[in-house]
Each structure stands twice: as C-alpha cells, then as structure tokens.
C-alpha cells in the first residue's frame, strides 16, 4: 500500500526505518519478507525455450531433493526462504523459493504471483519462473539466479556513461514492459530496485523482477488499487478511492527511472527535501522540468521521449510498444558523449540508497552477516545521515536522509524514530547509540 507507514519495531532505528511500506525501505523490507525474490534474475534461456512455464502438480515430497541440490540461503523472511540451487540434470544455477504450507497468510499471494509469472514465460528481460511444484510440506518456486546486482549500482560502478548506454539499457526495460502488457500483465511497481542485472559480466543485460503487486489486465476493465511507491506512481494512481487506471502506469514509472538515469536526480524531488504530500501534489500537477544544468548536454530526442513517458494524461502517454520505435530508444538519436555531471549526481543519489540497503540488511537479516560486517554497514549509514559530521544525528539530518533514499516519514514518525534510538535522552542519536540499537 502507498505509504501505509508504521514504525512498530522495538529493535532500533534502522529496523524502525525499514518498517516503512514504501520507497527504498519498502523495497528492501519487501524483498526480505518475500524471501528476496529480487535476488532472482534470469540468465538467458536457451534457444527454443518453451512457450509455457513448466508446472508440476502433486510432485510429491521427494521432488525437491530428486531434482535440485540446495546451497546457501540467499534471503529469508517471515514466511519462507530462498536458496541458491543447482538443477541436477544440467548443472544450471537457480534460485529456489520455499514456502512452508503452514504459512497460510503468504500462500495465496505467492500462488497469485506464480500464476502471473507463468503467463509471462518466456522473455529475455523478465524474471522467468522455471519450475513450480508442491511437496507434502512446502510450496516451491524455481527461478534463474541473479548475480549482477541492481542497475543503478552497476551504472555508478562504470564511473561514467553516455546517452547511448542509457538508451540500450532502457530499450531492454521497455521491451520487457511491452512483453508484460502483451501477455496481459501490468507490473505496477517498477522502480530502480526492481531492475536487476543478469550477471557480473555485463552492464546491459537487465531484467525486471518482483511481480508481487502485478495484476492481470482484463480487456475493457480498469486496474484498481493504491499500490507501489509514490515517487514512481502515475498521477492517475494517486486519485480516487480506489483509483482506477490503465497499464500505462508502467510506462510512466519507466519515465521516472529514465529521468533519474539521465539527470541524476528525481524529477519530483530534485533537492531530496519533499515529503509524500508534496511529491503527490507535484505528480498530479505534472510539475517537473529540465531545470538542472546537466540537461543542457542531453539530446532533444531523449527529452522528447521523457515528455511522452511522463505525460500527466495517460491518453497522451506513449505505450511501451510505440516507445520501442522512438529514435532515441532505437539508438539512432542517442548521444555518445559522456554524461559526467549526471553520473556524479547519480553516484551521490545512489550512495545513500546503497548505505541504506546495507544498514537495513544488517538490522533485519542477522543470520547472514557477522557482527563486524553489520557494525561496519551501520557505521557507514550513520556517517551518511550525519551530514555535518558532528557525530550526532539530529531531526533535520534524519529527515533529509530519508527523503534522499525515498523512505519519507511524517514529523510524528521522525520523532518516534528519534526517541527509539536516543538512549541518553539528549534528543540526538550518536553513532554508538545507532549501532547499539541495531546489533
């Protein structure tokens, strides 16, 4: 749900922050709670891949052990766990998601997600469900293994990039969305965290993942529900109770991601200072523009495509299929000049997200990290939050940082988080308090 914000954790500041159901904190916690599905991204399927995802019904208790070798845990949540696995018949590395049948609260959503993923099988830039079956004790989903990390992390690691680089990446993303829509599926939660790399060997082999909020498209019927993340939600998703909209909300989200990639900042929060109410108002009004100096080096073709993707009226918004024919996405009009300023801004933007991700992992996923690793991750996050370097986190610094990582909070929620972390009662959080409350 959009910003169904609570801060129920008693385990410290980072856990409290991670409890947000939206923004960066939402995506991080959601991946933990759903067994880290976003760790599951495809390697290319072999030529002649079947049209329909394999399904095995009533496979029996021995199906898992007879087909796969289980290795280390990749992610663990309240309801299930994801392992790295090996398909015995071929040696292929896969991700295996196991949900105990006793977790009835999660069974229905998982089965719905699996059904949607079967409908999408097969596309080179979409997460594919390779196998699904049940044993006497568990529901099992098998997907290809992701080893390449998030798109923005890889782009930043490149040091600099060009419009041509961005065009190639976004062409693959757009082809994935066009495929989803052609198969009758709307993703509804596209954001940087859900665009992953297939392996460490390539910077462009991207896959969209996490179909937990996806919905079937029924001809003649609108999509419904307040879902996703405010910063990537189309205007029509923020109106009505419940809002109704078309699959074009996915193209809008791609537009926001492309804007960040080319400009290095969020179109509706350029200064990382806006709360959800402000962003919602700006989105509804279509209040964005190419104001920063970095846009002077961006081609008019790229800007033209962004205007079509970020059109406030969905009737004016370009479809994924049509966008693939746009000269900029075809690569015909994309500049090969390095976007140095945009790359620097994106690195700054992504640094906070990375520290936040590691701090959240340290606070939640305790089994997979040593105390030293967790302490290091939390200390790194503290230093980024402590903008003036005085060794204390104040209310303003916490607010600004949460905006930077798109995990915005109300004043009351900020006060609650500060009180949870402030052991000595001085109204500030020291590095020792920050770490102690999360170890």
UniProtKB/TrEMBL annotation:
Q: Give UniProt keywords alphabetically.
A: ATP-binding, Calcium, Kinase, Nucleotide-binding, Serine/threonine-protein kinase, Transferase
Q: Which PROSITE patterns match?
A: EF_HAND_1, EF_HAND_2, PROKAR_LIPOPROTEIN, PROTEIN_KINASE_ATP, PROTEIN_KINASE_DOM, PROTEIN_KINASE_ST
- Positions of ATP binding: 97
> Which CDD domains does the UniProt record give?
EFh, STKc_CAMK
Per UniProt, residues of the EF-hand domain are 373-408, 409-439
SUPFAM superfamilies annotated for this entry?
A: EF-hand, Protein kinase-like (PK-like)
Ranges of residues in domain Protein kinase:
68-329
Name the Pfam families for this protein: EF-hand_7, Pkinase
* Superkingdom of source: Eukaryota
Which residues span the membrane?
none
GO molecular function list? ATP binding; calcium ion binding; protein serine/threonine kinase activity
Family of the protein in this entry: Belongs to the protein kinase superfamily.
Indicate what this protein is called per its UniProt record: Calmodulin
Q: What is the lineage of its organism?
A: Eukaryota, Haptista, Haptophyta, Pavlovophyceae, Pavlovales
């Amino acid at each position: 749900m959009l910003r169904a914000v609570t801060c129920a954790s008693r385990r410290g500041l980072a856990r409290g922050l991670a409890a947000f159901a939206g923004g960066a904190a939402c995506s991080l916690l959601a991946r933990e709670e759903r067994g880290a599905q976003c760790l599951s991204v495809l390697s290319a399927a072999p030529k002649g891949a079947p049209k329909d995802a394999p399904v095995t019904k009533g496979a029996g208790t021995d199906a898992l052990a007879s087909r796969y070798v289980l290795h280390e845990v990749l992610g663990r949540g309240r309801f299930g766990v994801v392992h790295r696995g090996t398909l015995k018949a071929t040696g292929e590395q896969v991700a295996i998601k196991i949900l105990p049948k006793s977790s009835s609260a999660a069974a229905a959503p998982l089965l719905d997600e699996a059904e949607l993923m079967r409908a999408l099988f097969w596309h080179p830039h979409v997460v594919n469900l390779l196998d699904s079956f049940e044993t006497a004790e568990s529901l099992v989903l098998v997907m290809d293994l992701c080893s390449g990390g998030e798109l923005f992390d890889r782009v930043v690691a490149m040091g600099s990039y060009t419009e041509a680089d961005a065009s190639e990446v976004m062409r693959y993303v757009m082809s994935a969305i066009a495929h989803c829509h052609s198969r009758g599926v709307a993703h509804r939660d596209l954001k940087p965290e859900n665009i992953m790399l297939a392996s460490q060997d390539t910077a462009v082999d991207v896959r969209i993942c996490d179909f937990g909020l996806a919905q079937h498209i029924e001809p003649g019927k609108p999509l419904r529900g307040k879902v996703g993340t405010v910063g990537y939600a189309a205007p029509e998703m923020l109106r009505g109770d419940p809002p109704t909209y078309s699959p074009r909300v996915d193209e809008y989200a791609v537009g926001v991601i492309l804007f960040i990639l080319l400009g290095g900042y969020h179109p509706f929060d350029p200064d990382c200072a806006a709360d959800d109410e402000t962003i919602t108002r700006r989105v509804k009004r279509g209040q964005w523009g190419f104001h920063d100096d970095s846009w002077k080096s961006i081609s008019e073709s790229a800007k033209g495509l962004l205007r079509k993707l970020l059109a406030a009226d969905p009737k004016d918004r370009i479809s994924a299929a049509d966008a693939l024919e746009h000269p900029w996405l075809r690569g015909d009009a994309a500049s090969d000049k390095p976007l140095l300023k945009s790359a620097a801004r994106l690195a700054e933007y992504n640094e906070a997200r990375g520290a936040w991700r590691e701090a959240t992992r340290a606070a939640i996923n305790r089994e997979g990290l040593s105390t030293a690793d967790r302490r290091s991750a939390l200390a790194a996050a503290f230093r980024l939050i402590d903008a003036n370097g005085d060794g204390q986190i104040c209310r303003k610094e916490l607010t600004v940082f949460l905006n930077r990582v798109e995990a915005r909070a109300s004043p009351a929620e900020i006060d609650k988080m500060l009180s949870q972390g402030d052991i000595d009662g001085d109204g500030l959080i020291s590095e020792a308090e920050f770490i102690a409350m999360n170890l």
